[in-house]
Amino acid sequence: MFKRTHKESFFLRDLSILLFRLALVCAISSPAAAAVHDGGVGACSYCHVHHSESGGSGPSLLLSASGPSSLCLNCHYGAGSPTTASVMSPDGSAMTPGGDFYWLNKDFTWSGGSSPGTSHGHNVLAVDYGLDLDSVRTEAPGGTYPSGSMSCISCHDPHGRSRSGSAAVSGSGSYGGTAPGGAMLGNYRLLGGVGYQPPGATFSFVNPAPVAAQNPLLPFGETDVSHVDYGSGMSDWCANCHFSYLPTHANTDGSAFKHSSDVQMQTGKINRYNRYVSTDDLLGTSVTAYLQFVPFERGPGSTGTLDPTSTQGVDSNSQVMCLTCHRAHGSAFRVGARWDMDATLLVDSHPANGDGGVVGNDVLNSYYGRDIATDFGVGQKQFCDKCHNNVPPH
What is the domain range of residue 343? Predict the structure, then answer.
Protein backbone atom coordinates (compact mmCIF):
# COMPACT_ATOMS: atom_id res chain seq x y z
CA MET A 1 0.00 0.00 0.00
CA PHE A 2 1.24 3.47 -0.89
CA LYS A 3 2.09 5.53 2.17
CA ARG A 4 2.56 9.32 2.08
CA THR A 5 5.55 10.94 3.74
CA HIS A 6 5.01 13.57 6.42
CA LYS A 7 6.13 16.22 3.96
CA GLU A 8 3.54 15.10 1.42
CA SER A 9 0.80 15.01 4.06
CA PHE A 10 1.54 18.55 5.18
CA PHE A 11 1.58 19.69 1.55
CA LEU A 12 -1.82 18.14 0.88
CA ARG A 13 -3.22 19.63 4.07
CA ASP A 14 -2.01 23.12 3.16
CA LEU A 15 -3.27 22.70 -0.39
CA SER A 16 -6.74 21.71 0.79
CA ILE A 17 -6.88 24.73 3.12
CA LEU A 18 -5.78 27.00 0.27
CA LEU A 19 -8.40 25.59 -2.09
CA PHE A 20 -11.12 25.94 0.56
CA ARG A 21 -10.22 29.59 1.17
CA LEU A 22 -10.05 30.25 -2.57
CA ALA A 23 -13.51 28.77 -3.01
CA LEU A 24 -14.79 30.88 -0.14
CA VAL A 25 -13.30 34.07 -1.61
CA CYS A 26 -14.97 33.28 -4.93
CA ALA A 27 -18.27 32.72 -3.15
CA ILE A 28 -17.97 35.93 -1.17
CA SER A 29 -17.19 37.96 -4.29
CA SER A 30 -20.13 36.54 -6.23
CA PRO A 31 -23.63 38.05 -6.40
CA ALA A 32 -24.80 35.31 -4.03
CA ALA A 33 -22.20 36.30 -1.46
CA ALA A 34 -24.78 36.93 1.24
CA ALA A 35 -25.58 33.21 1.19
CA VAL A 36 -22.60 32.55 3.46
CA HIS A 37 -24.31 34.34 6.33
CA ASP A 38 -28.00 34.33 5.43
CA GLY A 39 -28.57 30.59 5.31
CA GLY A 40 -28.74 30.38 1.53
CA VAL A 41 -28.14 27.25 -0.52
CA GLY A 42 -24.69 25.80 0.09
CA ALA A 43 -23.87 28.21 2.89
CA CYS A 44 -24.13 25.71 5.75
CA SER A 45 -21.12 23.66 4.62
CA TYR A 46 -18.78 26.65 4.94
CA CYS A 47 -19.12 26.48 8.73
CA HIS A 48 -20.77 23.18 9.68
CA VAL A 49 -19.98 19.49 9.20
CA HIS A 50 -22.91 17.20 8.54
CA HIS A 51 -22.26 14.57 11.20
CA SER A 52 -20.65 14.77 14.62
CA GLU A 53 -18.28 11.91 13.76
CA SER A 54 -16.84 14.13 11.00
CA GLY A 55 -14.98 16.24 13.50
CA GLY A 56 -17.46 18.94 14.49
CA SER A 57 -16.92 20.74 17.77
CA GLY A 58 -20.16 19.49 19.33
CA PRO A 59 -23.46 17.80 18.56
CA SER A 60 -25.42 21.06 18.75
CA LEU A 61 -23.29 23.28 16.51
CA LEU A 62 -21.31 20.79 14.39
CA LEU A 63 -18.73 23.46 13.67
CA SER A 64 -15.77 22.76 11.40
CA ALA A 65 -13.42 24.39 13.93
CA SER A 66 -12.67 24.13 17.64
CA GLY A 67 -15.23 26.83 18.50
CA PRO A 68 -17.27 29.74 17.12
CA SER A 69 -14.51 32.38 17.20
CA SER A 70 -11.93 30.08 15.66
CA LEU A 71 -14.42 29.34 12.92
CA CYS A 72 -14.99 33.05 12.27
CA LEU A 73 -11.26 33.70 12.16
CA ASN A 74 -10.77 31.01 9.52
CA CYS A 75 -12.08 33.65 7.13
CA HIS A 76 -11.49 36.84 9.11
CA TYR A 77 -7.78 36.40 9.97
CA GLY A 78 -4.89 37.83 8.00
CA ALA A 79 -2.97 40.99 7.17
CA GLY A 80 -5.29 43.95 7.39
CA SER A 81 -6.37 46.36 4.67
CA PRO A 82 -9.43 48.58 4.12
CA THR A 83 -10.84 45.98 1.70
CA THR A 84 -9.85 42.75 3.48
CA ALA A 85 -12.27 41.13 5.93
CA SER A 86 -9.64 40.65 8.63
CA VAL A 87 -10.49 41.44 12.25
CA MET A 88 -7.33 39.77 13.56
CA SER A 89 -3.92 40.21 12.00
CA PRO A 90 -0.47 38.77 12.78
CA ASP A 91 1.00 42.27 13.19
CA GLY A 92 -1.64 44.81 14.24
CA SER A 93 -2.39 45.85 10.67
CA ALA A 94 -6.15 45.16 10.81
CA MET A 95 -7.18 48.76 11.42
CA THR A 96 -10.90 48.15 11.30
CA PRO A 97 -13.45 50.37 13.03
CA GLY A 98 -13.84 47.64 15.65
CA GLY A 99 -10.12 47.15 16.11
CA ASP A 100 -7.81 44.14 15.90
CA PHE A 101 -7.92 41.08 18.17
CA TYR A 102 -4.13 40.96 17.73
CA TRP A 103 -3.80 43.33 20.68
CA LEU A 104 -5.37 40.82 23.09
CA ASN A 105 -2.16 38.79 22.94
CA LYS A 106 0.12 41.79 23.43
CA ASP A 107 1.44 42.47 26.94
CA PHE A 108 3.38 45.75 27.10
CA THR A 109 5.71 46.71 29.94
CA TRP A 110 7.82 49.77 30.66
CA SER A 111 9.54 51.37 33.60
CA GLY A 112 6.82 51.99 36.14
CA GLY A 113 3.92 50.54 34.22
CA SER A 114 2.32 47.80 32.16
CA SER A 115 -0.63 47.16 29.88
CA PRO A 116 -1.70 43.48 29.79
CA GLY A 117 -3.39 42.14 26.69
CA THR A 118 -6.38 40.94 28.68
CA SER A 119 -7.31 44.61 29.22
CA HIS A 120 -7.16 45.51 25.53
CA GLY A 121 -10.68 44.55 24.50
CA HIS A 122 -13.27 41.79 24.40
CA ASN A 123 -11.49 38.54 25.25
CA VAL A 124 -13.03 36.06 22.82
CA LEU A 125 -11.99 32.43 23.03
CA ALA A 126 -10.35 31.24 19.80
CA VAL A 127 -8.04 28.33 20.65
CA ASP A 128 -6.93 27.84 17.05
CA TYR A 129 -5.62 31.43 16.99
CA GLY A 130 -4.10 31.65 20.46
CA LEU A 131 -6.86 33.75 22.01
CA ASP A 132 -7.79 32.79 25.57
CA LEU A 133 -10.54 33.82 27.95
CA ASP A 134 -10.37 36.80 30.26
CA SER A 135 -8.12 35.84 33.15
CA VAL A 136 -9.31 38.71 35.35
CA ARG A 137 -13.07 39.09 35.01
CA THR A 138 -15.63 36.32 35.32
CA GLU A 139 -18.52 38.43 34.06
CA ALA A 140 -19.05 41.31 31.67
CA PRO A 141 -18.29 44.64 33.37
CA GLY A 142 -21.59 46.16 34.38
CA GLY A 143 -23.49 42.96 33.64
CA THR A 144 -23.83 39.24 34.20
CA TYR A 145 -22.73 37.68 30.90
CA PRO A 146 -20.10 35.01 31.76
CA SER A 147 -16.64 35.74 30.41
CA GLY A 148 -16.16 32.02 29.82
CA SER A 149 -18.78 32.14 27.06
CA MET A 150 -17.32 35.11 25.21
CA SER A 151 -17.00 34.56 21.47
CA CYS A 152 -17.75 36.34 18.21
CA ILE A 153 -21.33 35.07 18.30
CA SER A 154 -21.86 36.67 21.69
CA CYS A 155 -22.41 39.86 19.68
CA HIS A 156 -22.90 38.78 16.07
CA ASP A 157 -25.68 36.52 14.83
CA PRO A 158 -23.83 34.41 12.22
CA HIS A 159 -27.06 33.68 10.36
CA GLY A 160 -28.23 37.28 10.41
CA ARG A 161 -31.77 36.38 11.39
CA SER A 162 -32.22 38.25 14.68
CA ARG A 163 -34.10 41.21 13.29
CA SER A 164 -37.29 42.69 14.68
CA GLY A 165 -40.30 42.58 12.40
CA SER A 166 -41.99 40.01 10.22
CA ALA A 167 -40.52 41.06 6.86
CA ALA A 168 -37.91 38.89 5.18
CA VAL A 169 -34.28 39.96 5.59
CA SER A 170 -32.71 40.88 2.26
CA GLY A 171 -29.13 42.08 2.03
CA SER A 172 -26.69 43.54 4.53
CA GLY A 173 -27.57 46.54 6.62
CA SER A 174 -23.91 47.43 6.99
CA TYR A 175 -23.75 49.69 3.96
CA GLY A 176 -27.03 51.57 3.95
CA GLY A 177 -29.27 51.46 0.90
CA THR A 178 -32.78 50.08 0.72
CA ALA A 179 -34.25 46.58 0.60
CA PRO A 180 -36.62 45.34 -2.12
CA GLY A 181 -40.30 45.93 -1.54
CA GLY A 182 -41.73 43.84 1.28
CA ALA A 183 -38.29 43.07 2.75
CA MET A 184 -35.89 44.70 5.20
CA LEU A 185 -32.13 45.04 5.39
CA GLY A 186 -30.27 42.92 7.92
CA ASN A 187 -28.70 44.35 11.06
CA TYR A 188 -25.50 46.36 10.90
CA ARG A 189 -22.59 43.89 11.01
CA LEU A 190 -24.98 41.03 11.80
CA LEU A 191 -25.31 42.28 15.36
CA GLY A 192 -27.87 40.44 17.46
CA GLY A 193 -31.24 42.13 17.66
CA VAL A 194 -34.12 42.06 20.10
CA GLY A 195 -34.61 38.50 21.36
CA TYR A 196 -31.11 37.32 20.44
CA GLN A 197 -29.70 35.06 23.17
CA PRO A 198 -25.91 34.84 23.12
CA PRO A 199 -24.43 31.44 24.04
CA GLY A 200 -24.09 30.97 27.79
CA ALA A 201 -26.46 33.83 28.65
CA THR A 202 -29.50 33.54 30.86
CA PHE A 203 -31.06 36.55 29.15
CA SER A 204 -31.96 37.76 25.69
CA PHE A 205 -31.21 41.14 24.13
CA VAL A 206 -33.87 43.74 24.82
CA ASN A 207 -32.40 46.59 22.77
CA PRO A 208 -32.23 46.51 18.95
CA ALA A 209 -29.05 46.58 16.90
CA PRO A 210 -27.74 50.08 16.11
CA VAL A 211 -28.26 51.90 12.86
CA ALA A 212 -24.96 52.60 11.11
CA ALA A 213 -23.35 52.49 7.68
CA GLN A 214 -19.82 51.71 6.47
CA ASN A 215 -18.30 52.75 3.15
CA PRO A 216 -18.83 49.69 0.88
CA LEU A 217 -15.75 50.61 -1.16
CA LEU A 218 -13.51 50.39 1.93
CA PRO A 219 -15.59 48.12 4.18
CA PHE A 220 -12.88 47.35 6.74
CA GLY A 221 -11.07 50.67 7.00
CA GLU A 222 -11.26 53.73 9.21
CA THR A 223 -9.98 57.21 8.44
CA ASP A 224 -11.36 60.72 8.79
CA VAL A 225 -12.82 60.48 5.29
CA SER A 226 -13.95 56.82 5.22
CA HIS A 227 -15.42 55.39 8.38
CA VAL A 228 -18.56 54.05 10.01
CA ASP A 229 -21.23 56.73 10.10
CA TYR A 230 -23.29 55.96 13.19
CA GLY A 231 -26.96 56.88 13.31
CA SER A 232 -28.42 55.80 16.64
CA GLY A 233 -28.74 53.00 19.19
CA MET A 234 -25.12 51.98 19.75
CA SER A 235 -24.92 52.53 23.51
CA ASP A 236 -28.33 50.99 24.12
CA TRP A 237 -27.20 47.92 22.20
CA CYS A 238 -23.98 47.61 24.25
CA ALA A 239 -26.17 47.83 27.34
CA ASN A 240 -27.73 44.48 26.43
CA CYS A 241 -24.73 42.98 28.25
CA HIS A 242 -23.29 46.01 30.07
CA PHE A 243 -26.65 47.17 31.38
CA SER A 244 -25.46 49.02 34.48
CA TYR A 245 -22.95 51.03 32.41
CA LEU A 246 -25.71 53.06 30.83
CA PRO A 247 -25.56 55.72 32.04
CA THR A 248 -23.33 54.80 35.04
CA HIS A 249 -19.66 53.96 34.41
CA ALA A 250 -17.01 53.02 36.95
CA ASN A 251 -13.58 54.45 37.66
CA THR A 252 -10.61 52.11 37.99
CA ASP A 253 -10.91 52.37 41.78
CA GLY A 254 -14.50 51.14 41.64
CA SER A 255 -16.20 54.47 42.30
CA ALA A 256 -19.01 55.44 39.97
CA PHE A 257 -19.25 58.39 37.62
CA LYS A 258 -21.61 59.33 34.85
CA HIS A 259 -20.73 60.30 31.30
CA SER A 260 -23.48 61.43 28.98
CA SER A 261 -24.40 58.79 26.43
CA ASP A 262 -27.30 58.74 23.99
CA VAL A 263 -27.95 62.35 24.99
CA GLN A 264 -28.09 65.04 22.35
CA MET A 265 -25.13 67.42 22.37
CA GLN A 266 -25.66 70.88 23.76
CA THR A 267 -24.56 74.07 22.02
CA GLY A 268 -21.30 74.39 23.95
CA LYS A 269 -20.10 70.87 23.08
CA ILE A 270 -21.14 71.33 19.45
CA ASN A 271 -18.97 74.42 19.11
CA ARG A 272 -16.05 72.75 20.89
CA TYR A 273 -16.09 69.57 18.81
CA ASN A 274 -16.38 71.42 15.52
CA ARG A 275 -13.70 74.04 16.28
CA TYR A 276 -11.18 71.51 17.64
CA VAL A 277 -8.45 70.32 15.27
CA SER A 278 -5.80 69.55 17.88
CA THR A 279 -4.72 70.77 21.30
CA ASP A 280 -2.91 73.69 19.67
CA ASP A 281 -5.47 74.38 16.94
CA LEU A 282 -8.99 75.44 17.90
CA LEU A 283 -9.82 77.20 14.64
CA GLY A 284 -11.49 74.36 12.74
CA THR A 285 -14.86 74.42 10.99
CA SER A 286 -17.85 72.08 11.14
CA VAL A 287 -17.37 71.00 7.51
CA THR A 288 -14.11 69.19 8.28
CA ALA A 289 -14.55 68.55 12.00
CA TYR A 290 -14.97 64.73 11.99
CA LEU A 291 -12.12 62.90 13.73
CA GLN A 292 -11.80 59.12 13.43
CA PHE A 293 -10.62 58.81 17.04
CA VAL A 294 -13.77 60.51 18.38
CA PRO A 295 -16.77 59.26 16.34
CA PHE A 296 -20.33 60.05 17.34
CA GLU A 297 -23.91 59.27 16.41
CA ARG A 298 -25.66 61.56 13.94
CA GLY A 299 -28.92 60.96 15.78
CA PRO A 300 -32.28 59.38 14.91
CA GLY A 301 -33.14 62.14 12.44
CA SER A 302 -30.05 61.35 10.34
CA THR A 303 -30.31 57.58 10.01
CA GLY A 304 -31.77 57.76 6.51
CA THR A 305 -28.96 59.97 5.20
CA LEU A 306 -25.84 58.46 6.74
CA ASP A 307 -22.68 59.18 4.77
CA PRO A 308 -19.55 57.19 5.74
CA THR A 309 -17.36 59.55 3.71
CA SER A 310 -18.62 62.67 5.47
CA THR A 311 -16.23 64.90 7.40
CA GLN A 312 -19.09 67.00 8.76
CA GLY A 313 -18.97 67.58 12.49
CA VAL A 314 -21.70 67.43 15.12
CA ASP A 315 -25.02 69.25 15.37
CA SER A 316 -27.95 69.35 17.79
CA ASN A 317 -28.99 65.79 16.83
CA SER A 318 -25.57 64.28 17.56
CA GLN A 319 -24.89 61.98 20.49
CA VAL A 320 -21.90 60.57 22.34
CA MET A 321 -21.88 56.75 22.52
CA CYS A 322 -19.77 53.90 23.91
CA LEU A 323 -17.71 53.69 20.70
CA THR A 324 -16.83 57.36 20.93
CA CYS A 325 -14.09 56.28 23.32
CA HIS A 326 -13.81 52.48 22.95
CA ARG A 327 -13.30 49.94 20.18
CA ALA A 328 -15.65 46.96 20.03
CA HIS A 329 -13.01 44.29 19.35
CA GLY A 330 -9.69 45.44 20.70
CA SER A 331 -7.03 48.12 20.68
CA ALA A 332 -3.45 48.63 21.81
CA PHE A 333 -4.67 50.46 24.90
CA ARG A 334 -6.22 49.66 28.24
CA VAL A 335 -10.01 49.11 28.29
CA GLY A 336 -9.98 48.82 24.50
CA ALA A 337 -9.72 52.60 24.28
CA ARG A 338 -9.20 54.52 21.04
CA TRP A 339 -6.21 56.29 22.58
CA ASP A 340 -3.99 55.92 25.64
CA MET A 341 -6.16 57.20 28.46
CA ASP A 342 -3.26 57.07 30.91
CA ALA A 343 -0.97 59.49 29.05
CA THR A 344 -1.01 63.23 29.71
CA LEU A 345 0.48 63.88 26.26
CA LEU A 346 -0.26 61.34 23.52
CA VAL A 347 3.34 61.41 22.29
CA ASP A 348 4.08 59.64 25.59
CA SER A 349 1.55 56.87 24.88
CA HIS A 350 2.29 53.22 25.46
CA PRO A 351 3.06 51.06 23.61
CA ALA A 352 6.18 53.05 22.79
CA ASN A 353 9.42 52.10 21.08
CA GLY A 354 11.58 50.31 23.63
CA ASP A 355 8.66 48.94 25.66
CA GLY A 356 8.69 45.26 26.49
CA GLY A 357 6.51 43.37 24.03
CA VAL A 358 6.72 45.93 21.23
CA VAL A 359 7.64 44.52 17.83
CA GLY A 360 7.45 45.65 14.24
CA ASN A 361 4.98 48.48 13.63
CA ASP A 362 3.10 48.15 16.93
CA VAL A 363 3.57 51.81 17.82
CA LEU A 364 2.45 53.18 14.44
CA ASN A 365 -0.41 50.69 14.14
CA SER A 366 -1.72 51.56 17.60
CA TYR A 367 -2.86 54.92 16.20
CA TYR A 368 -3.96 53.50 12.84
CA GLY A 369 -0.86 54.55 10.97
CA ARG A 370 -0.98 58.14 12.19
CA ASP A 371 2.06 59.70 13.85
CA ILE A 372 0.76 61.74 16.77
CA ALA A 373 3.62 64.27 16.77
CA THR A 374 3.37 64.84 13.02
CA ASP A 375 -0.42 64.88 12.69
CA PHE A 376 -1.37 66.60 15.94
CA GLY A 377 1.78 68.09 17.49
CA VAL A 378 4.02 67.17 20.42
CA GLY A 379 1.70 69.00 22.80
CA GLN A 380 -1.34 66.90 21.86
CA LYS A 381 -3.38 66.00 24.94
CA GLN A 382 -5.95 63.24 25.20
CA PHE A 383 -8.72 63.21 22.61
CA CYS A 384 -11.24 63.87 25.39
CA ASP A 385 -10.37 67.47 24.49
CA LYS A 386 -12.32 67.11 21.26
CA CYS A 387 -15.42 67.84 23.36
CA HIS A 388 -13.78 69.25 26.50
CA ASN A 389 -11.55 72.09 25.28
CA ASN A 390 -11.33 75.83 25.88
CA VAL A 391 -13.34 77.02 22.90
CA PRO A 392 -16.03 79.45 24.13
CA PRO A 393 -19.41 77.64 24.29
CA HIS A 394 -21.05 80.15 21.89
Answer: 77-386
